[in-house]
Design brief:
With 208 residues, this protein is α/β, with parallel strands linked by helices. The protein has a single domain (4-201), classed as Aldolase class I (TIM Barrel). The protein has helices at residues 4-11, 23-36, 50-60, 74-83, 94-103, 114-122, 138-146, 165-169, 186-206; strands at 14-18, 40-44, 65-69, 86-88, 107-108, 110-111, 127-130, 153-156, 177-179. Strand 2 (40-44), helix 3 and strand 3 form a beta-alpha-beta unit. Helix 2 (23-36) runs parallel beside helix 3, helix 2 runs parallel beside helix 9 and helix 4 (74-83) runs parallel beside helix 5 (94-103). The two termini are 26 Å apart. Keywords: Carbohydrate metabolism, Lyase.
């Protein structure tokens, strides 16, 4: 099991945040990601078939880390322990943190305030998903928080796009960003698969 810092470093510069619309969509994206050597995918639990999508990506992307996002409760965490490489939640939960420590699961909690960072650090977390990043202050907030929390490492997610992700990556406290823009829709994939493949290869080979 990788620790959280290893996960975000391996994932850099962008963690693909996938909200697949169907199993066919998940399969097509997983095949694309495997070909482009995408290092990690966070699959959100917002679809009835999300767990099948996790398995599908694990099968089709053997060299990548497959994580589960939008984990909100004990039941989801315990299932993720067996079926995913890492777990991300939109906020911080002491119960989820305790479960992660107990099961040696890689857990990246979400934070939005200094209070939440302090609570998570008290449970020995140092790597955080900053969510929803753009809506709560974006780059300016991260700059402010890096002062009192010099050891914190962030993967900001939410409202980040191809137009602004470099601004986040320029911050020393940001290891990677979470981005849904690198996950093509079914229609986009059918229209320009080669274009997405080229973009993904440039993104991960260049490292910025």
């Amino acid at each position: 099991m990788h620790d959280a810092l290893t996960v975000v470093k391996k994932t850099a510069p962008v963690m693909a945040v996938a909200q697949f619309t169907s199993l066919d969509h998940a399969k097509a994206c997983a095949e694309l990601f495997a070909e482009a050597a995408v290092p990690a995918v966070e699959i959100t639990l917002r679809h009835p078939d999300a767990w099948q999508m996790v398995k599908l990506c694990k099968d089709l992307m053997p060299n990548a880390l497959i994580g589960v996002g939008t984990v909100l409760n004990r039941r989801q965490m315990l299932r993720a322990v067996d079926e995913a490489d890492f777990v991300i939640s939109p906020g911080f939960s002491r119960e989820l943190s305790m479960l992660a420590h107990k099961t040696l699961t890689t857990y990246i909690p979400g934070v939005a305030t200094a209070t939440e960072i302090m609570a998570a650090m008290a449970e020995e977390h140092r790597v955080f998903k900053m969510y929803p990043a753009a809506a709560i202050g974006g780059v300016a907030l991260l700059k402010s928080l890096s002062g009192p929390f010099p050891d914190a490492v962030f993967c900001p997610t939410g409202g980040i796009s191809e137009a602004n992700y470099q601004e986040y990556l320029a911050l020393p406290c940001v290891s990677c960003v979470g981005g849904s823009w690198i996950v093509p829709s079914e229609a986009a994939l059918q229209k320009d698969r080669a274009g997405y493949l080229s973009m993904l290869k440039r993104l991960y080979q260049r490292g910025t």
